[in-house]
Amino acid sequence: MIDTEKRIFLSPPHMGGEELAMVTQAFESNYIAPLGPMVDAFERAFVEKTGIPHAVALSSGTAAMHLALRGLGIGPGDEVFASTLTFIGSVTPIVFEGATPVFIDADAQTWNMDPNFLAQELARCAENHRLPKAVVPTDLYGQCADLPSIKAACESYGVPVIVDAAEAMGATCNGCHAGAGAYAAVFSFNGNKIITTSGGGMLASEDADLIARARFLSQQARDPAPHYEHSCIGYNYRMSNIVAAIGLAQLKCLEERVRRKREIFSYYYQALKDLPGVAFMPEAAYGTCNRWLTVILVDAAEARTDREALRKALENENVESRPLWKPMHLQPVFQTGAATPGYADQAGGRKRHPARAVGGRVAEALFASGLCLPSGTAMSVQDLDRVIEIVRTCVG
To answer: Using the 8-state DSSP alphabet, how is residue 322 labeled?
Structure first.
């Protein structure tokens, strides 16, 4: 029976107070379109905040990843390495371009792409004269992947790195903002992210030509002419001026949001660290995690419950929680073996896409036992205590 108390969501939007005024300005300017002064201002403010010198505001993080891959000319016959423990929006653009994803396992210390697995697979591919066209590590739950190690493995083969920093706004790696130093970085401002525009994304890079090309492609690839002239295929990927107004106001709150996310993690940790069979996502020594979501692991043998039983117990009390991302190499859409029950062929509207995996056991174990707890920055102490009480009641 679901509790009648208010629902506690996993990571709802949290407005900072200036959003409505910014949106009103956008309306008064009459720029109700995918361009305008708020978009320009949001891009400038983003560059200043992250230190990544060039950026283009887009309709989603997936659109940003797609344009980054387009910028590298990736296409059929190519391979792109990507984290297996990630959200599918990180890898679907690989398929959009007709390339083949290769899923790299996580390491147990950071839960992000394992640099050792990556280096071994790059060496093997080099021997076979079939290097990937790009490597796409995900900064999982606001924790930066080990970008220096990943870049070091890639640079000797000339393979560019595109960081999926969709969850990592405000996080750092070796003192730099998430994504800084990569060929390109992709960010998301979806409604559940640490700052939101309701929907939207950003592609950022040190390469001015990449961003200029992405900007061109994001506006239907319209050539400079008084009429609509097109010499290549583009997309309708630009961010709305209204959406950008929300983002501009939200960006002012970033440091406060990161501080509060980390406070929430600390509160959960202090309240639950003594429970048998409960562990927390570790923080890498090389950076600062924004703790977008607080994530725990539940050892069923020690905790006398499992991740799914705990999730259901929380749901029965009107509290939203969620398993970790299901690894990409386990997703039906990337399975190439025997038919999956209930899974239609291409004629039925669903198509499998060939992929392969390097390792996978770490990501599989994390998925099997990992649970994301409510981590909204507007949560009260009473909300946190309510979640904690349910967890403590179920465990041990």
So the answer is: E
CA–CA gap between residue 76 and residue 35 (Å, rounded): 32
Contact between 246 and 23 (Cβ < 8 Å): yes
Contact 90, 135 (CB under 8 A): no
Q: Summarize the confidence of residues 116-133 as an average pLDDT.
A: 98
Residue 330: which residues within 8 A CB-CB, separation 6 or more?
360, 364, 367
Between CA 122 and CA 131 the distance in angstroms is 7
Do 187 and 61 meet the contact criterion of CB atoms below 8 Å apart? Answer: yes
Q: Which fold has domain 255-335+349-394?
A: Aspartate Aminotransferase, domain 1 (3.90.1150)
Share of the chain above pLDDT 90, in %: 92
Residue 359 sits at φ, ψ, to 5 deg, of 70, -155
Helix or strand or coil: residue 15?
coil
Cross-strand bridge partners of residue 187: 202
Segments making up each domain of the chain, as ranges:
19-253, 255-335+349-394
Q: Please, is 76 exposed, middle or buried when counting C-beta atoms within 10 Å of its C-beta (0-12, 13-18, 19+)?
A: exposed
Residue 343 has pLDDT above 50, yes or no: no
Task: Encode pLDDT of 37-69 as tens digits.
Answer: 999 999 999 999 999 999 999 999 999 999 999
Looking at CATH, the fold of the domain delimited by 19-253 is given as: Aspartate Aminotransferase; domain 2 (3.40.640)
CA 291 to chain CA mean position, Å:
13
Measure the CA–CA gap between 218 and 31, rounded to whole angstroms.
18
At position 389, the amino acid (one-letter code) is E
**Which tens digits make up the pLDDT trace of 81-118?**
999 999 999 999 999 999 999 999 999 999 999 999 99
Two tokens at 126?
């080099």
Structure tokens at 76: 């059929």
Question: Scanning the structure block, which residue is given the tokens 């949106």?
Answer: 23
Q: Which of 236, 163, 167, 248 is nearest to 206 (CA)?
A: 163
pLDDT of residue 35: 85
Residue 291 backbone class (left: φ over 0; alpha: ψ -120 to 50; beta: rest): left
Residue type, 19: E
* CA separation for the pair 71, 214 (Å, rounded): 7
Of 82, 122, 50, the C-alpha closest to 334 is 82
Tell me the one-letter amino acid at 332.
P
